[in-house]
Structures are given as C-alpha cells and as structure tokens.
Write a sequence for this structure.
C-alpha cells in the first residue's frame, strides 16, 4: 500500500502508515513538507476543508484504477484532552457544523438521506430481532419501551449535519491553537443532539450540562433531556447488536451495564 500511495506523489517522498483499522491513511514527508494522505475519502472533505472544520485539503488525484487519493495539510498538534471537551471552542465548533447550510447541501447532493427517529427505531428493532436480542434482557426491554414511548418527542427536531462520533480522539488542537474535528466517516443528517448528547454524557458532569448547552446555544429542559436519552439508548441498543454480531462478549456485557445505567438515570428525570 505504501508503494501505491507513492505513485500519487513525486519522487523522494517518504510514506508511512498513519495507523487506524482500515489501513487507508498515510503520512508523507519530504524536506520540511508534510501531508496526510487518504484513499477514497469522501467528496465531503472538500467542503469541510473550505469551512475550516478539517485541515486544508491540498489536492486530490484520481489513480489509473479509479481510486482517489486526497492530500491534506499535516499539522503538528495533539488530540483534545477529555477535560477540554467542556471548553467554549468545542461548543462553538459543533454549533458551526450543525448550522452550516453548505455542509448540509453537500451531503444532500451526495445522496445522503436524513435519518429520522422513526428510521432509527425501526432499524434498531429489526436488527435486535435478527440477532434474537429483543427480549434477551430486562435492560433491552426497558430501553425499547422508552424509545417507543418517546418516539413523538424524538421526532421534534430539525435535522442537520452530524459528525456521528464525538469523542476527544477526533478533535485536533494544533500547535498554533486551531481546533479541527476530523474523521468524518460516520457523517449523517440527523438530530444534532446525537452529537452533543454523546459529548455531554461522556465528558461533562451533569451539574455542568446547562452551562455547556448555553455555550452551544440551547436551553436545557425536560424535552431536550428526553431527546438526548432517546439517542443515547438508541446508540446503546445498536452497539449491542454490533458486538453480538462480532462475538465480542466482554464488550456486549459492558454495553448492557451502560444501558442499565441509562435506564436508572431515566427514572430520575
């Protein structure tokens, strides 16, 4: 694969794997120049770059076999620390993404369909039934009951571009203090609470939720909490099927415990 990427470059570039599960990303270095290379990245990358959400896209090249190589600026920096997810700049970046008409129009032109709460619910139930998990535990049954009972509330939101994997590993803080959100493979059009609900639940103490949401630009109320937990439980049920299908029993049990915790929190709403 290294030699394949070298074909997209002029001579004398040093190409090394960037890590990750897919093996589709590489670093390239020549003198003082550095690039981040990726194979068959989404056309969405160009709009993300233009909006300043990811590092600058330098070029794209179509190879003889039809594959496309994209090259982005490689910027020295680090991933955001978990405690830094509370900062205003994270809320500002998410707000910018969720309110960008350019990003939304590009995903729609690419053929992405908005994912409604009804779509999500039906997909989850179908997958649980296929894996014979629908009645496998009280935690799963309680989660399904909550999703069904609150489906009408989950419908009540304008859909926007969502990243789909809001964790601190995907936020790059450069040495010159620029913040970028990277790894857009899970991009979707959905309720934006799918992004910031995940962030709140994973990184922000409950007593600080209202403050963070004010930074983002929304008010905390009962309806918002119901929508947030709706998507958190939907994620948990989806991951249960995911781990079951891969025979990952330890991760499956961890997800059951997390689902149990969410169900307990629901009782306190």
């Amino acid at each position: 694969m290294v030699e394949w990427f070298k074909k997209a470059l002029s001579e004398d570039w040093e190409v090394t794997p960037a890590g990750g599960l897919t093996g589709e990303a590489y670093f390239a270095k020549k003198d003082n120049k550095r690039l981040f290379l990726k194979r068959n990245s989404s056309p969405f990358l160009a709009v993300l770059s233009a909006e300043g959400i990811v590092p600058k896209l330098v070029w794209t090249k179509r190879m003889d076999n039809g594959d496309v190589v994209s090259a982005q600026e490689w910027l020295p920096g680090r991933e955001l620390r978990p405690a830094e997810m509370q900062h205003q700049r994270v809320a500002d970046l998410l707000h910018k993404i969720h309110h960008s008409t350019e990003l939304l129009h590009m995903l729609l032109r690419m053929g992405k369909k908005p994912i409604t709460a009804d779509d999500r619910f039906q997909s989850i139930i179908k997958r649980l039934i296929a894996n014979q998990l629908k009645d496998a535990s009280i935690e799963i049954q309680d989660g399904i009951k909550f999703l069904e009972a609150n489906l009408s509330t989950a419908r009540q939101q304008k859909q926007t571009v969502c990243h789909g994997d809001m964790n601190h590993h995907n936020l790059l803080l450069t040495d010159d203090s620029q913040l970028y959100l990277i790894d857009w493979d899970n991009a979707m059009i959905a309720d934006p609470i799918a992004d910031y609900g995940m962030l709140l639940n994973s990184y922000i103490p409950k007593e600080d939720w209202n403050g963070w949401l004010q930074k983002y630009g929304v008010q905390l109320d009962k309806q918002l909490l119901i929508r947030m937990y709706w998507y958190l439980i939907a994620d948990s049920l989806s991951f249960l099927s995911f781990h079951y299908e891969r025979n990952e029993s330890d991760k499956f049990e961890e997800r059951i415990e997390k689902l149990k915790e969410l169900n307990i929190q629901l009782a306190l709403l």
